[in-house]
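Researcher: Sequence recovery benchmark, item below. Answer with residues only.
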């Protein structure tokens, strides 16, 4: 690696950051707008991170599962704050087939293959997971339900940057269901501590845990906790979040259980996530 190929941090911090990624051969631009190709060395870093976090999740009682990439559009409409928060970022699948262009120039979308309901490529999975939970949960004996998913998601971005914000990125998302709000609160705080432990003791990044403002909380949550890392240019960057969803999604997707007294109640949900790209939208001056 040549020092001349790397811009000095004090000259242009942003350029220095991109030069490091290029010289370390971590990633490169793809032919798909806003998406990156994670190269072998970059992906090896992700695998090491994933291995450590996965053990942390399992040590706290969580199990891995996998849910569909495609989410019925109607699912997003069921929780008002959620759809408002993600509507502008969604990529939508409208047809299920291509056909040869009659003029012989290539392929076109077959107009006869329009879907009766469009699918959204998951920006996050609360809706399809809690629809599933409504079938998995019937009794208090099924709770708590502690699930994690390793997946990719897509959020349509106007401005992208390697490992800060890309249209498609790798992440994990935890989703849990509980009998009481007290249990959900305990889960939210526990997972924030897991993220803090991982950032500080594995990544060697000092972070500041705290509560997101009402305007910055996750769309559909009662409240959101976050860990924020301080970048070398003095700006803060969101590195992980843990959300208490209350009963908002449980009521939207009728996720209920029969308690010990025989009374049917809605569960309390949490979700929490960390990604191999940090959240560019929360990159701000301290």
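Model:
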């Amino acid at each position: 690696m040549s020092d001349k190929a790397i811009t000095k941090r004090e000259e242009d911090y942003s350029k220095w950051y991109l030069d490091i990624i290029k010289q370390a051969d971590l990633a490169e631009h793809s032919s798909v707008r806003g998406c990156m190709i994670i190269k072998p060395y970059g992906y090896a870093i992700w695998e090491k991170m994933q291995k450590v976090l996965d053990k942390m999740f399992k040590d706290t009682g969580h199990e891995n599962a996998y849910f569909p990439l495609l989410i019925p559009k109607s699912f997003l409409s069921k929780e008002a704050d959620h759809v408002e928060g993600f509507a502008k970022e969604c990529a939508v699948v409208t047809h299920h087939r291509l056909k040869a262009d009659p003029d012989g120039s290539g392929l076109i979308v077959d107009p006869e293959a329009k879907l009766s309901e469009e699918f959204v490529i998951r920006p996050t999975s609360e809706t399809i997971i809690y629809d599933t939970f409504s079938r998995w949960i019937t009794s208090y004996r099924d709770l708590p339900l502690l699930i994690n998913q390793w997946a990719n998601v897509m959020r349509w971005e106007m401005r992208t940057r390697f490992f800060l914000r890309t249209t498609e990125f790798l992440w994990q998302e935890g989703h849990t269901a509980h009998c009481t709000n007290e249990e959900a609160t305990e889960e939210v705080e526990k997972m924030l501590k897991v993220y803090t432990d991982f950032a500080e003791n594995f990544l060697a990044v000092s972070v500041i845990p705290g509560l997101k403002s009402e305007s910055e909380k996750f769309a559909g949550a009662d409240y959101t906790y976050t860990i924020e890392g301080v970048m070398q240019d003095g700006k803060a960057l969101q590195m992980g979040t843990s959300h208490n969803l209350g009963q908002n999604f449980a009521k939207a997707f009728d996720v209920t259980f029969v308690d010990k007294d025989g009374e049917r109640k809605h569960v309390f949900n949490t979700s929490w996530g960390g990604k191999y790209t940090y959240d560019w939208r929360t990159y701000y001056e301290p």
